[in-house]
């Protein structure tokens, strides 16, 4: 059943053809879910996130500016709403206190009422966070706080329940050794658990840690992982260490579009244009745990946070009655064929005996 298949999936990915794929790593199964029944590139999935109620609902942001609600309990899409405004695709989705938060490339961040039967076409709040947005990320500890950043758009932290000005605005790093301005290109952002710090990664191979509680607005930690280390792999830099390179996971054949770590297990899920979902173990022994080819180009990944991956009970597959009757028919036919097989052998032996007897009268002695 679709609901059983959806409930036990470990990883969800969104594709360039508008398909939501659920992957069960224990059963080695991948199931496609589409709202319209047929995949459409106009509905390419650009963002995924869990709903505010936990892992029972997934918000699916599509290229046509619709946000679809998918139930992992029922295994079906339960509704959608259109979120116009700005240009480009979704760069982030979030849900908080009955509202839906969206942000697009052009820098329009909007808050929509999400619990009405008839959704209002007008947003509750609109913020202009700056053009060239690459990522909007919600703070898990404070759902009404989000961070944004992009190309020539420095990191900003916004309190959606406060003023329309950012509560933290990062400052660019100092000029380089040639006294040239360092360009800004924050491609991803993440809130570090258990603190107010944020970590960003840039399109110029830099990882930076910011502390809004610090008096300085520049990064409190910065490290580079040179261009040679991103060819066919990723550099992993642990946040507790002073910028030390932990390792490099290799083997990718295309651009990586989505990365997510498990909250309690040393696992990292990744997907990209090579159409392959990979799950790596990032602690010793490091290595590839799972590799699944999913046929479509993958844009984003969403990892289940539950802990019972290996201890998951294997539910018996329920066979429909029609399939059972068909199996019984084939078993009966095979049994009948086995019964007829000895008769055929006896007939062949009798024919061979008759032929030998016919040859005896005509035989001559030497």
From TrEMBL:
Which one GO biological process term can you cite for this protein?
ribosomal large subunit biogenesis
- The protein's name is WD repeat domain 74
One Pfam assignment: WD40
Question: According to its record, what are the GO cellular component terms?
Answer: nucleolus; preribosome, large subunit precursor
In residue numbers, the region (Disordered) covers: 307-328, 341-366
Tell me where on the tree of life, at the top rank, the source sits. Answer: Eukaryota
What InterPro entries does the record tag this protein with?
WD40/YVTN_repeat-like_dom_sf (IPR015943), WD40_repeat_dom_sf (IPR036322), WD40_rpt (IPR001680), WDR74/Nsa1 (IPR037379)
Q: Which CDD domains match?
A: WDR74
Species name: Prolemur simus
Composition-biased stretches, type Basic residues, lie in 352-366
